[in-house]
Amino acid sequence: MAPILARNVEEKAMLKRIAVMAIGMMVLAGVMLSGCEMPPKVTIPEEVASDFENDYAKGTWLQEQAAAYAQQGKDVHAELYYQEAIYTFEQYKMERASKSPLLALTNLRIGESYEALGRFEEAMKAYDEVIDTTPSDPAREFAEKNKENLQKKMDQMKEDAEKAAEEMTEKAEEATEEAAGSETKEATEEKPMTEQPAAE
Hints:
- With 200 residues, the chain is mostly helical.
- It is built from 7 helices and no strands.
- Helix content is 78%, strand content 0%.
- Helix 3 runs antiparallel to helix 4 and helix 4 (75-95) packs antiparallel against helix 5.
């Protein structure tokens, strides 16, 4: 009975794989027919991956790809590649960068990726790490400039938001005053005229 049981188990496994493949093909066909794009994923060509000496090189390539996608207006792809770049740089830091001369550059690139994603507070922390830990590294100068420019950008965004809030408040007040004036005018027009007493 054992050979028969084994054959049944193998057949069930094979049928399960076939079913999974069929479902995948149906989903793909549905996406293609609906005109929707498949969700992007990080893809590194084998010939490129074979040239990576370490995760710093890999992260740099991912960051450059993200910037290229951003220039093309492919924001979803850019975000995905920036996130993958950050993850790769962090992995490099954990494994080797504590003893690597590329530590400052790694943190600098992490900051630049966070800034590109609009995660400004995290970008600031990365730039500060470069500034605080590498007093004589050339990357420090870039980190200081990036931090200064980012702070100006954040201040401008805050100022613009406050100005927009003030304008919205003023418009709301004007609309309220106009509505109140209209109600008063309508009430006055609808008020019946009182009869004048007859002259004796």
